[in-house]
Structures are given as structure tokens and as C-alpha cells.
Amino acid sequence: MKKHLFDEFQPVSEAAWKQKIQMDLKGADYNQTLVTATAESINIKPIYHADSAPVMDIPNRGTSNNDWYISQKIYCGNARAANKKALNALNRGAEGILLDIPNADIDLTVLLKDLPEEGLQVHPRFIDLEFLKKLHGFRPKAYVHLDPIHQLAAQGNWFKNQEQDLKSYSEFLTTFNGYFSNITINTSTYEKAGATTTQELAYYAAHLNEYLNHYCDTGKEHDKDIYTAFAKANKRINIDTTIGSNYFMEIAKYRAYRILTKTLGKAYGIDNLGCYITATPSLRNKSLLDYNVNLLRTTTECMSAVLGGADTVHNLPYDAFFNKENEFGDRIARNQLLILKEEAYLNKVANAADGTYYINSLTKELSEKALELLKTIENGGGLIQSLFEGTIQRKIKESDAAERELLKKGGKTLVGVNKFPNAEQPLKKKYEILPFQKIEARKTLIQPITMKRLAEDLEKNQMPK
């Protein structure tokens, strides 16, 4: 008696499969017929086999138990209202809270009342060490996410100026112990503006390299404390990301983030450099047209982030870009994650994508291509220099334009937008908030990287007069 059913079948080699495919094609060209080229310059093959599959060593999640957490983002314009909303979210399924704080004068006593000691991410839109000291007094186990280079890329200006921002960031990293203060890399601007997955990963690596080069050069006396903290794993890299629409590519992307972090760490002699990844669905592919489809988009996007190894996921309400914050949208977004965790059991397997030939191949190619692009950026003076020269902005615009052209010609599908439109759900003349790109006239040091949803032009053409 056989131990396993498949013991009765002889294994088939990759070469045998390819030979069979060629026979079935009856003379048609294999590459033109079955191989698909992507914007990442990766050719997707019709078959992935153990014979040629790479063996990947993907670092574990940054969480202590290798689990992922459901979080909810709270805008903290009003301390009392934000506190009430945060407590409600925690009582209804959220495991953590992401506090988006626009101003340093917010009353922390009111904002943090009854909130837990752990599970808080704090995202200030400013650098203010006195505010951070006060916050540390209230919640020393919170995780603060600050990224001056992201401020430059997204807004076109530093918080104050380059010298002062980097000096304040150094003080931030050295003043507070543990994970309260880490280096944060926010890559959401790159993705939402239209960067390919390869570009996003390469810009992440270049972004991180700017900080490591500035703060972890052991030849500089003042950098030794920061270097030691990372080397002893007393600090890590926070990566704030948005999730794209290509399901398998996104799974591979999150695995590649960990590989790139470890690779750059080794280059600086930090062998155990770890990262903590926070993910949320991108607005880029969301639409006013048949807007309920946004629920399907955010569900598969959150799945890909979880399967790729994200540590914290906070979902995007389906109506986040055209309706004001509302209980229904927030509850549905939170429940989507609860279903993935409590009913689909996506927290029961730590690295679900391990051993998959296709995803391993994608992960390897993305990592390698990102490192190649990183070398080009570094040869050009690094990320900051490239931002001032406009190189990064130009490359992202080219990728964005190519994807828009593909959507226009039908080569890219958005259900409810350019395929299977819902005539029973027409657009309105007005929405609670402006759903289209907002361009603010202001003086900037560089051209900021701006986001525009893919469907905006199509929506504008269908807006009722």
C-alpha cells in the first residue's frame, strides 16, 4: 500500500513540461504566446517548477509572536473626538490604533485617556522634541513614525530645512530608548503616484540608505550610539506602505521589503537589522464608479499584504475619498480584516507563501531588480540628490502615464470603470469631499510627488453637468 496517493505517479521535470507545451502550441512562439511582460520588467511564465525555483530565506515578521495586527487610523484634529473614536474601534475589533496628529498643541491627556499602553502608532506631521518627550511620558511603549525625507518627497519641502531636520531626527533617535523611536520609511507616496513595484522597492532602499549613511557610519563619533542601537536590535526600521492591486506581485513585494532591509543592514555591518511593516490599501485604483467594488479591491489587497508578511494592517474604507469619516465605512473596513483573521484564519500560518515557486521567483526578481536600480540612484548621488534633480519624479510620471494609457486602451481592467460598468449607480454632481486631485499652489524646494487616482479622468467625463 502506498503512503501517499501521488506516489503512484512519476514526477515530471520542468523540461518535460516545456516540451509538452511546445507540442501543444503547434508552432506558435512560446514567448509571444504564453510569456507576459510586466511594468516591473519581469516576464511571467506559464509554469514555475521545483527544478528552477529559488530557495528564499525570508526574515520573520517584526511582531514578537509572528502574528499580524488589525489597526485603525484615527485623525486627531480634535482630541476628545479622536479619543472617543479610538476607544470605540478598540471595543469593536481593532487591536491597535494609528494616531494621525496634525498639530503639536493637541491635548495628550484627553487624546490618550483610557487608551492601552501598547498597540499605539503615533504619526506626527511635524518634528517637535518637546511634544515627543511629553508623549513618551504618557505612552513610552508607543511607536512614533517620523520620516523627514518623505516630508520632502510628498510636500516638496522639509519640515524646517535639511540640516535642522536631520539634526532633530538624530536627537529623536538618541533621546528615546527602545522602539519608541525608530527610523521610518514611508513609501506610500511612491506607490500612489504610479511607481512600479520595482521602483517602489528601489526607492525604499535608496531612502533607507540615506538614513543609514547619515546615522550609522561608525567612522563618525556621534553616530555610534545610533549604530549600536540598531546592531543590538534595540531599534528597527518602520516601513509605512500602501498596497497595490497586483495580488501575487504585492505578496512578493512585502517579502522583498524584508530581504532589502536585511541586505542594506549587512552592508553597514548591522547583520540583524529588522523591520516592522504597516500596510493599508492604496487609493490609486479606487473609483467613484460602482464604488462598492472598492470593497473587493481592499479585501484582496489586505490579503496580499497579510500573506506577504505585513505586521500591521489598517484597512481603507470603501468611501474614504468621497465621503467624510463615518461609522459605517469604518466598521465595514474593520470587519473585512476581522473576517480575514477570525474566519479565514490568515493568522494561523506565519509565512503562508513559503515554498511557492511562483512567489519565490517574483520575490527574487523584484529584490534583484530593486538593487540594480538602487545602484543607479546611488551613482547619481543618492535619493535626496535625485529628488532635487527631478529624476525620481520624472521616472514615476513615466510609469504613471504608461499605466493610464494601458487603462485607456483596455489593457488594464478596473471592474465597474472600463469593464462591466454599473448603469444603475450613476455619478453625483457633488460629494461630501472633493474626490479628485487637489493641487495646492505653494513655493517648494522640489517638485512634490503627487497622487492621482487612475479612474479620475474617466469619472470627470461622466460627471453630470
Fold topology:
Layout: H1 14-25, H2 30-34, E1 36-37, E2 43-44, E3 69-75, H3 79-91, E4 96-101, H4 108-111, E5 120-124, H5 129-138, E6 143-144, H6 148-155, H7 162-175, E7 183-186, H8 188-193, H9 197-215, H10 224-231, E8 237-243, H11 247-267, E9 275-281, H12 293-308, E10 312-314, H13 327-343, H14 357-379, H15 383-389, H16 391-409, H17 456-462
Parallel strand pairs: 3-4, 3-10, 4-5, 5-6, 7-8, 8-9, 9-10
Antiparallel strand pairs: 1-2
Helix pairs in contact: 9-11, 9-14, 11-12, 11-14, 12-13
Short description:
The chain is of the alpha/beta class. The protein contains 17 helices and ten strands.
What can you tell me about this protein's structure?
With 465 residues, the protein is α/β, with parallel strands linked by helices. Among the domains are: 5-44, no CATH class; 145-366, TIM Barrel (Alpha-Beta Barrel), CATH 3.20.20.240. It is built from 17 helices and 10 strands. Strand 8 (237-243), helix 11 and strand 9 form a beta-alpha-beta unit. The chain is globular and about 70 Å long. This is Methylmalonyl-CoA mutase, small subunit.
